[in-house]
Amino acid sequence: MEVRDLPSGSPEQPVTAPGDRELPVEARGLWGDEADVVRGARSVVVGHHAATELLRDLARRADAAGTRVSAVLGRPVRPVVLVPGSTAEAARVAGVGSVAGLAAVADGGRVVVVPEYFGRLTPTGRDVVLTHELTHVAAGTERLPVWLYEGFADYVGYRDAGLPVRVAAAELAAEVRAGRLPGGLPGPEAFAPSSRDPVGLARAYQEAWLACRFIAERFGEGTLVRLYRDAQTGGVDRGLARLGLSAGTLTARWRDYVRDQLA
Prior knowledge:
The longest helix has 22 residues, at 52-73.
């Protein structure tokens, strides 16, 4: 196992230097002596047959993603990122049948990067994906409707990305300009991966994102975070009731918001 720190001269990367006993279990046991480890200021990136420059780039981006997620959740976030050597290995590490088409996945307390697809993203896309998946890791997933689970992660991912709404939601914007507003918040079936309808899957994520963005803009970001936590403990209907909303009222106001943002 080879352990490297990011260059100490990088101004945005105040590098810590923990001992080997503080490295994550993934570094010590997953790939043994074949693992390379790069540590950022608050992140650890563990790679298997991955290029050193990719690991260093991921450590920098993971540090930044951790800062973004921490700013929303209000508590420290220390990312652990695994970089398998192939798409098939990424699926095995994540414990899923396939990661085809996915740039990264959240798996327990870590983010698993799929090099083949992650490498095709723009720099902004890499930041959004890492922040999205790290939000899943840090915020938890219990008892959540899928629109809130995915929409909240996208809200955090896009929050500081600097992308115009119509660019980030290009597929949904095309539908709205054609006079087709979504009828309701996307359910689980809308997020089922399908190579036959990648545009539909993209729209589902965009619809969920704009639902959470609407709540944050209308009621405040802290209220969106509380809704997420309330939904985990008592269900989303109870959380919405505290805002004076029902599922139907939220849907109606969200549809108006989508039209205003994208028409």
